[in-house]
Amino acid sequence: MTQFIDQHKHEFGVEPICRTLQVAPSSYYAARSRPPSARSRSDVVRSAEIVRVHRSNS
Length: 58
What we know:
Low-confidence stretches: none
Largest sheet: none
Number of strands: 0
Mean pLDDT: 95
Distance between the termini: 35 Å
Structural class: mainly alpha
Helix content: over 70%
Strand content: under 5%
Order of helices and strands: HHHH
Number of domains: 1
Number of helices: 4
């Protein structure tokens, strides 16, 4: 959801989008300030490995 808000905040603003989606603006700002989770970090590493293996088998 934060990605959607980020994509449209310049056109509509954060607060109106949050109101429409029934999300507290503070939740959006908290999510944006949080560091990436361990899962997100490991997904980046695994994705790179998958691409490497796929390319080596092509």
